[in-house]
Amino acid sequence: MTSILLLSGPNLNLLGTREPAVYGTDTLDDHVARATKWAASYGFTLEHLQSNHEGVLIDAIHAARGHHDAIVMNAGAFTHTSWAIHDALAAFEGVIVEVHLSNPAAREPFRHTSVLAPVAHGSIAGFGRNSYLLGIDAVAQLLGRSPA
Ligand code: DQA
């Protein structure tokens, strides 16, 4: 059974109340519930972890090796800074899709660079609540799967 690890980085635990004009009013639980259902429509299982700590996210990426087929990751601000997460993802042999709720390219200059994009198969940004679902669609496409 194809298994996806959905990883959420710092401050995403505050979704729902954090800058709702930018990130919307859905909570992280809302996003995860929707993503879990969407993944199931492809016959995928989905596990989720959120952490505000870089090392916890790195440990989760290491643990995903040999256990998960794909990682869908919204690394929050670590997207723009974390070469350590970049290196951890580079050691993951499965599919990697970077996702963002907002469109960082249309925001402050410090958000314009993703240090994770070079090790992801692709990036999805700016589609709000649909970004996670499109990230799962991308996994399915990369694995050659269609809805069950
Ligand atoms: C984000 C964009 C990042 O720039 C920001 O630091 C976040 C959220 C997004 O989902 O739009 O925390 O990854």
CATH-derived architecture = 3-Layer(aba) Sandwich
Q: What is the strand arrangement across the widest sheet?
A: 2-1-3-4-5
Class of secondary structure makeup:
alpha/beta
Spans of at least 5 consecutive residues with low confidence: none
The total count of strands amounts to 5
Mean pLDDT: 97
- CATH fold annotation: Rossmann fold
Shape: globular
Brief description of this entry?
The protein has helices spanning 20-23, 28-41, 54-64, 83-90, 130-142; strands at residues 3-8, 45-50, 70-74, 95-100, 122-125. With 148 residues, it is an alpha/beta fold.
Note the topology.
Layout: E1 3-8, H1 20-23, H2 28-41, E2 45-50, H3 54-64, E3 70-74, H4 83-90, E4 95-100, E5 122-125, H5 130-142
Helix pairs in contact: 2-5, 3-4
Tell me about this structure:
By secondary structure, the chain is α/β, with parallel strands linked by helices. The protein has a single domain, classed as Rossmann fold (3-Layer(aba) Sandwich). 34% of the residues lie in helices and 18% in strands. The chain has five helices and five strands; from the N terminus they run βααβαβαββα. It has helices at residues 20-23, 28-41, 54-64, 83-90, 130-142, and strands spanning 3-8, 45-50, 70-74, 95-100, 122-125. It has a five-stranded parallel sheet, with helices on both faces. Helix 4 (83-90) links the parallel strand 3 (70-74) and strand 4. Helix 2 (28-41) packs parallel to helix 5. The longest helix is centred in the first third of the chain and has 14 residues, at 28-41. The protein starts with a strand and ends in a 6-residue tail after the last helix. The protein binds 1,3,4-trihydroxy-5-OXO-cyclohexanecarboxylic acid. Residues 11, 74, 76-77, 79, 100-102, 104, 111 line the site of 1,3,4-trihydroxy-5-OXO-cyclohexanecarboxylic acid.
